[in-house]
Design goal:
Blueprint: E1 10-15, E2 18-23, H1 27-31, H2 41-52, H3 61-68, E3 78-81, E4 85-89, H4 90-109, E5 123-126, H5 141-152, H6 154-166, E6 170-173, H7 180-188, E7 192-195, E8 202-205, E9 207-210, E10 224-227, H8 230-237, E11 242-245, E12 249-255, H9 264-278, E13 284-288, H10 297-305, H11 307-310, E14 314-316, H12 321-329, H13 334-346, E15 362-367, E16 374-375, E17 385-386, H14 390-398
Parallel strand pairs: 4-5, 4-9, 5-6, 9-10, 12-13, 12-15, 13-14
Antiparallel strand pairs: 1-2, 3-11, 7-8, 16-17
Length: about 400
Amino acid sequence: MASKNSFDAGATLRVNDVEYQVFRLDALNRTAGVNVSRIPYSIRVLLENLLRFEDDRTVKASDIEYVAKWDPKTAAQEIQFRPARILLQDFTGVPCVVDLAAMRDALKARGANPQLANPLIPADLVIDHSVQVDAFGSPNAFHENALLEFARNRERYAFLRWGQNVFDNFRVVPPDTGIVHQVNLEYLASVVFSDHSKGVLQAYPDTLMGTDSHTTMINGLGVVGWGVGGIEAEACMLGQPISMLLPQVVGFKLTGKLAEGATATDLVLTVTQMLRKKGVVGKFVEFHGPGVNALPLADRATIANMAPEYGATIGFFPIDNVALDYLRLTNRPQAQIELVEAYTKLQGLFLTPDSPDPVYSDTLSLDLAKVVPSLAGPRRPQDRIDLPCVKENFLDALGG
C-alpha cells in the first residue's frame, strides 16, 4: 500500500544512475512547520518510518505531526513501528519457523494455498546459541566441531534447509559462521535498505527487531534495532507493526579521545556506571559530540551491545565517516556504500563534527581522556573500580 504522503515528503534520490523513492524528512520543515534538525537522530528514523507507512489506519497524519514536533518532556504517545527486517537466533528463531510450517499445514488442510503463510519482511536466522565445543586445542578443532554439530542436529538442519527453500524472505546462517551479533554487524546489516515491495524501488533506513537482548550491538553502526520476544518477532514477520510509546532520548555527549592504555572495555564500564546512575530504562540513549569521531566502530559496537546492562532500549551512534569506513573494511559493495552516504546525508541522518546538537530529554557528557583502566564484576558491570584503587578497595573489603 502506497503512503498517503500527506506532508508531500515523497521524492526521488538518484545514486549511480539508479532512482529511488524516498520520503524526505526535511519536507516537514515546510509542510508541518517544524525543524527536523532538533529531533534526535534515532527519532528521525522512527519519523521516516511513519511517513513511509502513513495509511490513515495504523499511521495517521496526527501521529507523524506528533513525532515531528518532538517535545522531549511531554507524555509519550503510542506509535506503530515497522522494522525493515527480523534477526533470529536459533533458540528463539526455530519455533518461529515451526509456527510458519504449522500455518502452512493448516491452510493446506482447509484447501487454501499454503504459500500464503510466508514472512512478509526479510528474516535471518543465525545458528550460534546451541553450538557446543567438543574438540579444542588442535588445528582441526573448528572443522571437527562443525561436523559434530551438523551430525548431532541433522533433523533440525534438514528442517531449516526446507524452510530456507520454501519460504520467501528467509535465510539461515550456518553454525560455523560466527556469533549472531557479529554476523549481523559484519555481513547482514545494509544500513540503508532498498527494495521493490511497494511497486517502486524505495530506499529507507535499515531497522530490525531481534530475538536476543543484545541485538542492540547493531546500534553502533547507525541501525535502530533492539531485542523482542519470539511472538513479537513472528508478528512482525507476518506484517504486524510494533506498538510502542515514543521514547525519551538521553543525549550522551562525548568529547576528547581515549588515553593510551584505556580500552573499549574501560569505556563501556564507565558509560554503564554513568547511565545506571542516571536511570535510562525504557529510553533511547544517543551518543553524539566530537568525541564520537575518535571511537572506532568496534568500540561503538561494544558500547551499543551493553544497552541491556545499562537498561536502555538502545544505545545509538549515528552514521558518520567512521561507519562508512567500516562498510568498506567489511567489503560491502561500493554501490551500497554510496547509497548509504547519499541517503543519510539527504535525510539529515549523517553526523558531522559541525552537526548541531538535537534537543534531548536529558543529557550526560564524558571527556574520553578521563576514562581510566578499571575493574568490574563479576556479575554487576556497574560496580566499577578505577584500577589504581583496586588494592585499597580489596583491603577495605577484608576489613584492614
